[in-house]
């Protein structure tokens, strides 16, 4: 018998500064169908990136916009006999107002530790506990690998001029949707055409220029790896959210270098599929602190395919 299909869902800990600004409070919603309090969350739409589904569900259930921060983990359980996974993020409230609906009839803002008493111990309570472990606000560095660009052997010109193919342009368009969620207003790219084309749809959408960053290409990384890592660390020291598009080999080295610089364990596999990348979440109380790290893979969502090993070549 075939295994039951996994139901995918997403949500978040929607937070805001409490009155006076010295602490935070989080939103809980009441669902009359179940007569319980929970974090805002819901089922993903077909092909919907999880973080975008979390933002949509928070909007639908609370009336508030939100900006994603560090990942808070996931819960798994059976829903009517089917396995269900719900992924969560810290979500900064970004304006709005609650209006009751048939699905959610009440919303309350509570200190995180108090909110835990109202939540299911085997589901949302653990997510709030993870949020409570580190409530500092964060800003993101989105380190993106360029999209699909065909085969290197079939391109007769300089490799740095090899453009995205049709699949790569589709990945760039989907990537722009995801990048928009993070409200980033500075974009840098290695001096490689396929890198520039990967972030150009987002830059066009935001009406900002893409800055060329030669030190972050595969070729530059191979020639002077310390220089590329230092350039990225200098950018982080500016404490400004940004997007950086690079190539596969350079990205893996850069992820490891940043983790080492901030005394955080690097991922066991720092590779990235084309069109995907890493989000590094930094808390800024003086010197930046790496508070969270997550891989994202929008290219997987364009085809519905299972995750594959990163293909060779930049």
Compact summary:
This protein is an alpha/beta fold and 314 residues long.
Helix content: 25-40%
Number of helices: 9
Gyration radius, rounded: 20 Å
Identify the CATH architecture of the largest domain. 3-Layer(aba) Sandwich
Number of domains: 2
Oligomer: single chain
What name does CATH use for the topology of the largest domain? Rossmann fold
Structural class: alpha/beta
Strand content range: 25-35%
Write the layout of secondary structure elements.
Elements: E1 7-17, E2 24-31, E3 36-38, E4 41-43, H1 50-62, E5 64-79, E6 82-96, E7 106-110, H2 112-116, H3 124-133, E8 138-145, H4 166-180, E9 187-189, H5 193-206, E10 210-212, H6 218-223, H7 225-237, E11 242-246, H8 248-261, E12 277-285, E13 287-296, H9 298-303
Parallel strand pairs: 1-6, 8-11, 9-10, 9-11
Antiparallel strand pairs: 1-2, 1-4, 2-3, 2-7, 5-6, 8-12, 12-13
Helix pairs in contact: 4-5, 7-8
